[in-house]
Amino acid sequence: LGSFLFLGMILIGIDEEQGPQVYKCDPAGYYCGFKATAAGVKQTESTSFLEKKVKKKFDWTFEQTVEVSQPKGADFFYGI
């Protein structure tokens, strides 16, 4: 047998009434809303990092969001 490939999906959109929305869907079709989430090789570490940042402050500008999502240790997120 070959290796099993996992395929997940993170959907991001803006609702006119509720603002930005983030959902994560797994291969079984289960989906859940998040304030911040990650996927991939370093999912656990990345999600933990994002949870700590979101707990401190959640009402961010676009620029602040981009800054937090791209830390200096980018290899942390990309699994390099």
From TrEMBL:
Q: What keywords does the record list, in alphabetical order?
A: Proteasome, Signal
Query: Any signal peptide, and if so, which residues?
Result: 1-16
GO biological process terms, semicolon-separated = proteolysis involved in protein catabolic process
Against InterPro entries, the record matches this protein to:
Ntn_hydrolases_N, Proteasome_alpha, Proteasome_sua/b
Q: Which Pfam families match?
A: Proteasome
**What does UniProt give as GO cellular component?**
proteasome core complex
Q: What is this protein called?
A: Proteasome alpha 6 subunit variant
The organism named in the record is Homo sapiens
Q: Lineage from the top down? A: Eukaryota, Metazoa, Chordata, Craniata, Vertebrata
